[in-house]
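Two records follow; treat each independently.
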Amino acid sequence: MVLIWGANYSVIKRAFDEMPPQVFNAIRIALASCIFLTAIRIAQRRARASGGRMSSVFYTPVPLTRRDRLDLLWLGVVGHWMYQLFFVGGVALTRVSNGALIIGATPVVIATVSALMGREKIGALHWIGTAVSVAGIYFVVGRGASFGGTTLRGDVLVMISVCCWTAYTLGGARLIKHHSPLYVTGMTMAIGAVPYVILALPQIVRMNWATVSAWTWTALVLSAVLALCLSYLIWYTAVQRIGPARTSLYSNLVPIVAIGFAALWLGEPLTRATLVGGAAVLTGVFLSRLGRTAAADPEGEPSGG
């Protein structure tokens, strides 16, 4: 997931030269939703044919309750429509360093809210690891950040997107205890895709499609299949297996991979600050993993998620 999301930044950077971000996003989320719905249908058919013998990542026989349906609805609206809308809109109105630094705070927000809700027991090493990791993010991309003024609106939008992602991660943790990550991720994405596409429809209609190259279409398809379908499935599977707080900390690695990939593919320079910050992020994730092991219950299972 980290490798895919990290590489995705460089891939879509070139695609945005030919297609507006909201149009690109609307088409890829619609495509990803279709792929998810097809995969859910195939998993259900194969599960019935095999008598229910299938990984819980892809299928669970538990019927939906009224609360489950309501949860799917609000998770789709908040976790896909609102998150994508605020994130893309915010990044367009602020500096890259500002956006990356705000997104780097996501693990802190998720861990804090999860602990306050009693979902997870967060040990001291986890908090130390989170602090070291966030410091590494700041060292890599945050030193040039300047909040307020002309970037204030964009900064606020990115902050709202972090809140949306936190709600999506923690809100879905209850659902994936009983339903497969494939089903929860796919259904919520399909629900969120409907208002997103409707909102972007005027831009889609005005788009001059003749100017879009085959490379951009390929990038769009790969971004939908890998960055949305596969990575979102991995995210919720990890939330199911190791809990929201520890899963979210791995997202701090995404900017590091993105910078490394950009250096290899786009020729962007690697500075000493980048290398030191990357080492700090990796150290923070390692410390968090040690803290998570110490916080496991007596049976060896994670304490949350």
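The next record belongs to a different protein.
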Amino acid sequence: MPFAAALSEHPLPTHAAGEVIGTVLEALGEGPELAMTFVTAAHAGALEDIAGAVREVLRPGTLLGVNATSVLGGAREVEERAAVVLWAGRFGAPVTPVRLEAVPTPADTVIAGIPADAGGRVMLVLADPFGFPVDTFLDRAAAPGGFTVVGGLASGAVGPGGNQLLLDRSVHHDGAVGALLPPGVRVTPIVSQGCRPIGDPMIVTRSERNVIFELAGQPALVRLADLVNALSPEDRALAQRGIHIGRVINEGKLDFEAGDFLIRNVVGGDRSVGALAVGDLVEVGSTVQFQVRDAGSADADLRALLGGHGGDGALVFTCNGRGVHLFGQPDHDAKLVESVVPGGAVAGMFCNGELGPIGDRSFLHGFTASVLLFNDP
């Protein structure tokens, strides 16, 4: 098997590093093209030492790492406790290490560090949420000749400068680091946004930037009120806790299902004009559908998207708001992903924002599990 992962909860970083490195080395041997390590706060101060041990013993072609609030490995999620996770993979060709920085210019901001040959490939990205213009980067990735982005925003700090983004022998506290996978690598990206549609899809008939004034010819707020009043008591309670809206990405489809919508929050309403403000730009003619989110919806959505898929390895970037906070029990996302990766080579982190594709371009998400399944090349 060309992929391996290991998790250690030992409180001493030297012991934890030894455990995960030994397990991965036994499974893969030296020299995997890519290794990734994720550590929680208790081991954040030792990240460079852990990385040094990985480089010395495992000798990966490229090494990425990050500190996070919580991590996952195999079928386990370790939330806000000491843990180290190591994942490694062989692809039969080298990956390209990537260091991304935002460079202001008189006209706009340019993202420096994107490899010239990135077109059509998949880039794993670990980004700092403070100051790095993720949307600008994703717009660049979606431009002609662009690439797919999967990854997450670091969650190990509550302010600028506290996150550690490891790339080989360097640790950065801003921007982003990543790895451009070789052409032809067999991967399947899955983005589970954890929502369930309510009501019917509607066409936006009047809007301005992120404000929807009319849906199917009527004030948007009236449409929403009518929908909520017609819901079951259970769904009405969910809608009152938080309503979301899904924008269809591929308007060419006749029927819409999980994975066809980009989910964004409804952030407010204006009764005087019947308008709704949402967390996205919405054009006239777009198809949208209101959504609710709870543990059951999130569980069903991830199960449905994983159904029919399988892999030999997986990287998982799940939201800080999921885990025990959402599901009431540990290990939910890790167990579901591990169930379609029989070898258990699953690893990842809890994020301050998740990166992954919906349709033909990548977006920044929230309350999402972004998964990249790998198949034996």
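Discussion point: Residues 49 and 172 are 15 Å apart (CA to CA). How would you locate this feature using only the token line?
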